[in-house]
């Protein structure tokens, strides 16, 4: 089946389209969501097209979410973007929709929805949206290009990560040619609040690096709260251990209020998504997330990451 054609046919058939993304969004989640909505609004001005999810102040410069009534979901085509599994979809009203389409670039370990278009070789979901628009000759105006560019920049780590391909750069050039202020977008994504900068100093001071190049840091709930991050969160910290030349893999453990841990895993080479899957997570080969139930599981994951790194 030509899944992209099937998705386009569904879009043409439906008069109400609601676009979701994942919880705790990053620039690709919001950028692909808002960019796709703008493309579809330009192509189909008579349709009702909405973007939903929690409004995150740190990404308000990218897009504003729509506040819509529950009843609209009952007859809507639901699109979930950049969301690998059902529990992570932001705004659970998506389940009311009669048809759900998943568009994502993460490994399809947990399929859901009536149609799935998953390309885990794409740098980002934003890149996929540009490809979709190009295939069906849908115009990408400057407004859409701005958010899609932000999504690609975010998920490629400013084009540092291995998912950056020649195609990624061609797509990026296409977006820049619409007249967007790429420098301003880059600066917005590079900036961080003072509280996050101070926590980053704590991270470097408390980072443990093994001889094999496996690094980790444990951020207690009390430590995180003491920096009063507000809505800024800790996402900006994730790439920081990788800036150290001797670090090959790293894990950031963030204690939650129930004393479990959110785990962010990254790598410069050794594949770490298998480790993530063993601990209630998953993701890309070099960028994954997981969960640890308690301090004992944290200790186990640290040893496993060390073993995995030393083997390479």
Automatic annotation (TrEMBL):
Annotated ranges, domain DDH: 17-152
GO molecular function, one term: nucleic acid binding
Domain DHHA1, chain residue ranges per copy: 239-308
Name of the protein this chain belongs to: Phosphoesterase
